[in-house]
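Posting for a labmate who doesn't have an account.
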Amino acid sequence: MINSQTATAARTGPVISPPPVTPPTPPGDNLAAFACKDVSGGKAGSANVTAVRAGEQTGFDRFVLQFDSQVPVYTIKRQTKTTFTQGASGQTISVGGSSALLITLHQAHQSGSYTGSTDIQHPDYAVFREAVVVQDFEGVVQWGIGLASPACIRAFTLSDPARLVIDFSTAT
């Protein structure tokens, strides 16, 4: 005669505990130190800008350019002025703040792939003030970044999706 406990154990089998889950490493644990110098990187090949955003974090403000395939070759140069020359037109454009950076993306395109704002303003952030498209012509995309004051930066790339991340230190 089989009792109900024996019948239940036979139907379900032994209880097997799942393996322990290791949580992912939180972002920011292995980031490089901030540096007060120009930065370059990326990979050769064409890419389209698909999203642009800015945000505040503890200790830094962040600007992110997202791409459809890979992060193209880029340079980030510190500027002495907050005024930039717009592409082939030669017109000038100014960004908010008292210091600036110029981000140049080579073999990149923005028209048609990015439909968001081309003038992102956050005057209430600690360092980041404004980002404006300076050029999008013949495979060169440039963003002028206005900062409240000169700031050391940390730039790195991420994949899936491909992103160029630029952090501006809020430490004085």
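Reply:
Got it, the structure tokens are right above this. Residues 33-169 form a domain with the Immunoglobulin-like fold (CATH 2.60.40.3500).
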